[in-house]
Write a structure and sequence with these properties.
single chain; alpha/beta; two-stranded antiparallel sheet
Length: about 280
């Protein structure tokens, strides 16, 4: 007969706070930092929007890992997070100090709406963002201009940008180019698994002349690498990727750069060009 695991003091404290939102909110200023992540997770999953908003506004840690919690999209909970972020700039919690803006925002594998994206771009506490991770957030059917507005807002601070698996197309990337050009603090970008043509990829590379701090660059192979049945043409891949590399080297010298196809449906690997072609195991 198994013995049930006893509740820890932290678990008992969380359960008590979750049962009484008003008490929980009034306790946030004095709450130990160690309680915040687990309490926030339970409040988020329970859609206790009032507590979620106040916890974000008083968040004491440098990273707010929202993306991992968004398995079931909830516009109300997402809006509560954004409202809490905005409150950070305007509310004083300690004499002579304001809560600092968020430096890291991670929203991954989330079915985002146009209203979500619009709200994100209007948030006043993201103006010093250093790390933006939108992996798996499908953007292909959305108006991309709010994301352009956010990138323009954080151009002087943004260090890493992950837009992998966003399914963006040429026109969307074209709309982002003016903002990306001014993101001069970038050290890492990831554009894998987006649908870009050879022409727009060349445009993107030519807009990176100010990326003097960039260390890692990950780009999708151009659409021209695929045949009519959406299969990779290894000959085209081996021909077009060096051409893209030459386009970039004409304006600056990259440190670590790769072009990669989508993952192979048979072996689950990508064909990658990095100082030469490395094909997925189906072609080896």
């Amino acid at each position: 007969m198994s013995i049930p695991t006893p509740f820890t003091l932290q678990m008992l404290a969380r359960h008590s706070l979750l049962r009484n939102e008003d008490v929980a909110i009034s306790s946030l200023e004095e709450m130990p930092n160690v309680l915040f992540p687990a309490l926030f997770k339970e409040a988020f999953e329970g859609r206790q929007t009032k507590l979620v908003k106040e916890m974000v506004a008083t968040w004491p840690l440098p990273c707010l890992p929202v993306g991992a919690l968004m398995k079931t999209p909830s516009l109300e909970t997402f809006q509560a997070v954004l409202d809490g972020v905005d409150m950070r700039l305007t509310r004083k919690f300690h004499p002579r100090s304001l809560m600092t803006p968020l430096e890291t925002l991670s929203i991954t594998y989330y079915l985002i709406s146009q209203k979500d994206l619009d709200s994100l771009s209007r948030s006043q506490s993201l103006f010093q963002l250093k790390h933006l991770d939108l992996r798996g957030v499908v953007l292909c059917d959305l108006d991309i201009m709010p994301l352009r507005g956010l990138l323009e807002k954080v151009a002087d601070t943004l260090e890493t940008l992950d837009l992998k698996w966003c399914g963006m197309n040429d026109s969307q990337l074209y709309a982002l180019l003016p903002a990306l050009r001014h993101c001069c603090q970038l050290t890492m970008v990831n554009f894998y698994s987006n649908n870009f043509s050879m022409h727009i990829l060349k445009d993107l590379l030519q807009h990176t002349i100010n990326w003097s701090r960039i260390n890692v660059e990950l780009y999708p192979g151009p659409l021209e690498c695929y045949d009519d049945s959406a299969q990779v043409s290894v000959e085209r891949f081996a021909l077009l990727c060096p051409e893209l590399m030459d386009t970039l080297r004409a304006i600056r010298q990259p440190k670590s750069i790769s072009f990669a196809t989508d993952t192979c449906q048979r072996c689950g690997e990508r064909c990658v060009y990095h100082n030469g072609s490395r094909l997925c195991c189906c072609w080896q």
